[in-house]
Amino acid sequence: MTMSVEPQATETGLVFPPGFVWGAATAAFQVEGSTTVDGREPSVWDTFAARPGAIRGGDTGEPAADHYRRAGEDVALMRSLGLGAYRFSLAWPRIRPGGTPSVRGIAFYDRLVDSLLAAGIAPWATLYHWDLPQRLEDLGGWTARDTAYRFAEYAETIVGVLGDRVASWSTLNEPWCAAMLGYAKGVHAPGRADPAAAAAAAHHLLLGHGLAMDVLRRDAPRVPAGITLNLYPVTPDSDAPEDIEAARLVDGQQNRLFLDPVLRGGYPADVVADLAPFGFEDVVRPGDESVIAAPVDWLGVNYYRDYRVAGTPRPGSSPAEAEWLGAGNVHFVPDPAAPLTDSGWEVRPGGLTTSLLQVHRDYRPVPLYVTENGAAYPDVPRDGEIADTDRVAFLDAHLRAAHEALEQGVDLRGYFYWSLLDNFEWAEGYAKRFGLVHVDYATQQRTPKRSARWYAEVIARGVLQDHPESATHHSPGHP
């Protein structure tokens, strides 16, 4: 299952291989709204959003982008952009509220998949994008081993219905975020700040992945399945031993903690040692690693940034926070030359090439997809138009980085922009806009931004044109 034509560079631009998947992504809690409709039960994010001060502006999952009621309109929008695939997540609290399959909750995804197929858009379904039912969190959440088995039970319910109509299945989205931001740093749901809980959650999430892969192999054997990880290159600030050690620790917990058990069959010894003070070895039982190592058909790479780290403070550096366990001596060193997104993240497209190459060189052969890549910008409408030239520049630069990986031999099969729609951006609420399509939250009017039209042209041609006039980078807030 390899690409038949090599990527090319022509006089007019960079040509992507035939069959390259062009898509966009969303997540259930971020776009659906309708949080109490058709029997849906509360998720950890509903509970967390109700906590005073947890979410910027006191925002909640209502109304989000009202996708639950406007899915037909949104599928037509995707078709107008020429998307070949739509990556979305399934809401566990809709599908098994109270632990019992819901006919009404399942019916929404049944209709969505059918409408996507009718529009010629491949449905890419993710089983888990962080919306754990609150009733399971009350029983320990991902710190409890039983949650992994309840996840497999949920997977069995929905895979049994959607089965082969889904073009590709993903078990988990960014388990690092669910474990470390949710259970260690406490800035994501469920809002716990307990490093031992985070270590246990990381393992049980991966165990759930392996158990769900068993379900997918049994119930949808002809459909490709994989997992989606947020992988960020980590570079030491210098050759000093303390900087090299800082990079090893962060790379271990950000990348290798998840890549190694999935693609190599076991946890890396140095990361296990790093996590030992937090009880990690106590939660890993004999046989777990072989379950996690269930062969995947593809790996999703979510890329937003890279890290330069030091073992001692540097001018302008900031200390590591709780999401890297035992990282008290780690400091993050900024690149003052890098443009910043509206989230304050450095725009460093070369890191995407590096991430893809690292997986390609260091692990067994596996097809790769960029399953998320995107940026928030202010996106102020002017005369009914959103001229988001920053996002166009971001897209252009990162697609060039993806093509560079192709040219260096990476088996990269597709690219999904994050996000199709402006949406609920977790702890940032509605303050950050990542969408190709602007959403007016008061009226739910959708307005494709300049970036949406630019991306549609790239998709139609399969070519990234040289020096597009619209891809000149501007400072954030100044389109």
Automatic annotation (TrEMBL):
* Gene3D superfamilies tied to this protein: Glycosidases
Molecular functions per Gene Ontology: beta-glucosidase activity
The answer to keyword Hydrolase applying to this record is yes
- The answer to whether keyword Hydrolase applies is yes
Q: Please list the reactions this protein catalyses.
A: Hydrolysis of terminal, non-reducing beta-D-glucosyl residues with release of beta-D-glucose
Q: Where is the active site?
A: 372 (nucleophile)
Q: What is its EC number?
A: 3.2.1.21
Q: Which InterPro entries does the record match to this protein?
A: GH, GH_1_N_CS, Glyco_hydro_1, Glyco_hydro_1_AS, Glyco_hydro_1_beta-glucosidase
Per UniProt, which keywords does this protein have? Answer: Carbohydrate metabolism, Cellulose degradation, Glycosidase, Hydrolase, Polysaccharide degradation
Pfam families reported in the protein's UniProt record: Glyco_hydro_1
UniProt lists the family membership as follows: Belongs to the glycosyl hydrolase 1 family.
Against PANTHER family, the record matches this protein to: GLYCOSYL HYDROLASE, LP05116P
Protein name as it appears in the record: Beta-glucosidase
Instruction: Give the species.
Output: Amycolatopsis rhabdoformis
